[in-house]
Amino acid sequence: MKNTNLTISIIGGTDGLGKWFARYLKNKGFNVIVTGRDIEKGKNVEKELGVEFTNNNIEAAKKGDIVIVAVPINVTERVIKEVAPHVREGCLLMDITSIKEIPAKVMEENVKEGVTVIPTHPMFGPSTPSLLRQVVILTPSEKHKKSEWFKKVYNFLKKEGAKVIVIPPEKHDKIMGIVQGLTHFAFISLGATLKELNVDIKESRKFASPIYELMISIIGRIIGQNPYLYADIQMFNPRIKEIHETFINQCKEISEIVKNKDREGFVKIMKEAAKHFGNEAKRGAYYSDKAVFALTSEIEKLNKLIGKEVAVKNINSNAVHFGVLKDIEDDYLILNKNGKEQRFNILKVDVFAGNELNELKKKHLERRYIDIAVLFKKEVDEEVILNLLKKVFDIEIIDIYEGDKIEEGYKSITFRIYGYNKEELKNMEREFLNIIKNIGGKKRFK
Q1: pLDDT at 202
Q2: At what angle do helices 73-83 and 227-236 cross, to 10 degrees?
Q3: Would the N or C end of the chain have less CB density within 10 A of its end CB?
Q4: Fold designation for 366-443
Q5: What does the pLDDT read at residue 399?
Q6: From CA 253, how far away is CA 276, in angstroms rounded?
Q7: Are both 302-361 and 366-443 of the same fold?
Q8: pTM for the complete prediction?
């Protein structure tokens, strides 16, 4: 696809995944038009991303070589019926909702002859940095799978590093009914159960096993998302009813077995489920062990850094803060930054020390330096001395001098030591001179 020659209209491109694609595709050189109901928000997005905004879906559809419907699931069918008849012959119509049977059918029924339809499901959210290693599911009919547009879209996604899966929309919805529908249903039910039991979640963590910690974290992640999106995933997938009924029946059966203290019946259900999982049961154990290890090892790593200088980088904003790690309290680390304390949620930051800290300081802080001249005997190899000092300091030699005012048999070597503030440089000078003294050198100027 020649990006500069194509216009992509994103219906509902001022928020969420629609806005993500607007930014991503604009950065790839496409001409991008976005629509939205909120004119003020649309104008802000237009300015922020450098795209064109209109609140007229039909006009946007007429202009687009590619038209992407990126509205909430509950209005997708209505919006497709609104815009599909206005997509030009020879152009492409897509949607990016998480159900596929209904959008696929409505797009096929409402486009002109000669318009290609590719129902699409990106399996990621708007916080994802790029398409690299992300799963994107395409569900075109056999007719549209043979089109030039399909080849272009498929090749573009592969070039961007995405993992592309091509399946019929019916199969997609059946799989997503499990992957999303059952998963969300189960964990939202668990969250609602804990609420009904009036469980103090923070208090319960004090007694938690690692698996309980993982479960609480997953529940928190899901119930903290947009509830309308999750409601639509449950209510608009035609396969959900059967999945819910099966799940609820299994819950009732297991509950009855427990009520009757039928130990062998309970064991039988677990064994049969494990047999169905096969090797995936062992994989699940290994995978969860790794997740548990990651949680505990991160805390151990942070505990070892208490009292040391670190860099704290916000995962979402990429803002970097430097200071001394003072303590860890619950999910927060406390950073002493120039005498002031700052608290950061451990789950929202990355912490760097050692060489990674030094690289971040070079990138984000203004470098300062101090020059110190020292005397060594002439036969001393200054490169050996420099390599030794580089293990401790960010340092270089800027001058070597022999002659007037230099003690007989000695040479003057001037070192430049880099740091980031006066106090740090003062401490470095003290440490530097102590090392120099212990390896046979002495300060030139008193």
Answers
A1: 87
A2: 70
A3: C
A4: Alpha-Beta Plaits (3.30.70)
A5: 93
A6: 18
A7: no
A8: 0.66
Burial class (CB in 10 A: 0-12, 13-18, 19+), 106: buried
Cα–Cα distance, 293 to 370 (Å, whole number)? 44
Looking at domain 302-361, its CATH class is: mainly beta
Q: Look at residue 84 in the predicted model and tell me its pLDDT.
A: 98
pLDDT bin (cut points 50, 70, 90) of residue 383 is very high
What is d(CA 446, CA 443) in angstroms, rounded to the nearest whole number?
7
Taking the domains of the chain in order of start, what are their residue ranges? 3-166, 172-258, 302-361, 366-443
Q: In this structure, are residues 77 and 103 in contact, taking their beta carbons and an 8 Å threshold?
A: yes
pLDDT at 330 over 60: yes
pLDDT in the model for residue 51: 97
The b-or-e profile of 54-77 (16+ CB within 10 A means b, else e) is beebeebbebbbbbbbbbbbeebb
CATH for the stretch 3-166: 3.40.50.720
Q: Determine the length of the chain.
A: 446
Confidence of residue 64 (pLDDT cuts 50, 70, 90): very high
Distance CA 157, CA 319 (A): 30
